[in-house]
Amino acid sequence: AALDPKNGKITMISISRDTMCELDVLDEAGSHVGTANAQLALAYTYGDGGDTSCALSAAAVSRLLYGLEIPVYASIYMNGITELVDAVGGVTVTPDVSFGVFTAGQQTLLTGSRTEQYIRYREYTTEGNNQRMQRQNQVLVALVRQMLTSVKQNPASALTLYNNVSRNVTTNLNTSKILYLAQQAARLSFDGEIRNVAGTSVLGAENHAEYQVDEQALYELILDVFYDPVTE
Which of 184, 136, 145 is nearest to 16 (CA)? Predict the structure, then answer.
């Protein structure tokens, strides 16, 4: 998520967990032993499941985005997602395809276990994670809209939401920074879209899905979101 006070907007960017990128590799003692080109999701597994994992993930994303600084991170366990959705009264989504208890084209209110069912289901194909990401993005957009509405009415509501899920969250933000960012976000607009890093899903040498990023499209995305053109 990029907060841009100068241009008055919030931009959200989604990066596939299968994205091939350069990761830091740690040994069992936690010492840095080198780097590897692998799926982004593996960056988290080289850490401790907490702050180290988050920092490794942030470093991998930073490299992918041409050295762009990632100053804030947060990870949330699946139980925390369910708690967050329930804390805002549920979110309404419209599935693109039918699976489980969900019917394509039929609006559904997600609460409780239905939230996890919706965002966790994945077909085991090269496109399976991309399809799951689209469902996760639906939930995120609905969450952001409802939270922004709440924060605009009362910035302190961000702390209430955080307290509801904090036991399932790892972040380098303290409560004062959360409140500050919530106040900033309340002044900005969100267009309701999540920008996806473009690329192609292929089957790797070990039959694992690999997402090959379109470097030109990524470069243009970074310029568009994080830079202003210079006019002469």
Answer: 136
Q: Is 16 exposed, middle or buried (0-12, 13-18, 19+ CB in 10 A)?
A: buried
3-state class (DSSP) for residue 127: coil
Average pLDDT over residues 112-124: 88
Position 231 pLDDT exceeds 90: no
Which H/E stretch holds residue 165? helix 157-165
What residues pair up with 21 in beta bridges, in sequence order?
38
- Read off the pTM: 0.88
Q: What are the structure tokens assigned to 178, written together?
A: 């959360």
| 4 contacts 197 by C-beta, under 8 angstroms | no
Q: CA 94, CA 163: separation in Å to the nearest integer?
A: 29
Instruction: Count CB atoms within 10 A of the CB of residue 170.
Output: 18
pLDDT the model gives residue 75: 95
CA dihedral 109→10→81→17, nearest 10 degrees, is 110
Residue 6 has pLDDT above 80, yes or no: yes
83 — pLDDT class (breaks 50, 70, 90) = very high
Asked if residue 125 has pLDDT above 80, the reply is no
- Measured CA to CA, the distance from residue 52 to residue 183 in angstroms comes to 28
Please tell me the distance from the alpha carbon of residue 190 to that of residue 198, in angstroms, as a whole number. 21
